[in-house]
Write a structure and sequence with these properties.
Structural class: alpha/beta
Bound molecules: ligand RRO
Shape: globular
CATH superfamily: Aldolase class I
CATH class: Alpha Beta
Number of strands: 16
CATH architecture: Alpha-Beta Barrel
Strand order of the largest sheet: 3-4-7-8-9-10-15-16
Largest sheet: 8 strands, parallel, barrel
Helix content: 25-40%
Length: 306
Amino acid sequence: MNSNPLSTRLAGLELRNPTALASGILGYSPESLQRIAEAGAGAVVTKSVGLTPRVGYPNPTVVQANCGIINAMGLPNPGIAEYASEIRYAKTVLTVPFIVSVYGYSAEEYAAVAKAAATAGADAVELNVSCPHVKETGSEIGQNPKLLTQVIRQVKAATSKPVIVKLSPNVTDIVEIAQAASAAGADALTAVNTVRAIAIDAETALPILSNTRGGLSGPAVKPIALRCVYDIYEKVKTPIIGCGGITTWKDAVEFILAGASAVQIGTALAQKNPAVFQTINRGITAYLKKKKYRSIKEIVGKAQRN
Ligand code: RRO
């Protein structure tokens, strides 16, 4: 019998616990990703990388909102050719599964970047088909089941590594999108990316972010993300990674009860410190013990009514 009640097998990856660093929070540096592993994360996800470098949007790119933050970074990244050597190095440093987030402007580009990341040593790729505010990529692909299917099929054909698909909450029916991703061969679904939002400065009478609109994350979006996980689990068999405002062990347990096999933590890390991973893992362990469950596997989807 497995003696670690927190261990999770997901998309072919063995996680010592169900908490992972969400994409976009700590960038790309292998050392800072390993610090998060040492603080207790069961896996780490990089910021999204594309085929060619991108500068991103000018400042301001982040603004504090009530119970969360709104960002429009604009996908700043070094491009996969430069990042591939960091991926190779990261594999010698990292002690937990290493997931590289990738994006592209076409199915071919997603496949090329995913292949390069996997060849360099990524344990899995997470397809960013949900960035809410960069044209011709992200959610423009992830809200279109046909395009999404093409992207996932081409990525699956280009690599044998697990393919995780990060979904957008900014759609009419997330279940339809999750079903398309699952049918196209996604090994896991991350639900969800940020919620489209805006902040306005009454003094200047202008939007605060240089890009005008951005994506809201943090506790404000938790009930939306939780509903997305619940809805997907009800209809789709592919494993789910919950993401959206998870700050405490109770938040994490709620996502697992809704149907998540693992959770990603982002904004809580930006607002607290890396100890949040250990605090959440300890809390989940205490909950399992108190409720007399032997492992988290026993509670995945337990809140579903049918
Ligand atoms: O870089 C960003 O502005 C960004 C991305 Br790629 C994303 O997927 N989600 C988000 O809120 N911001």
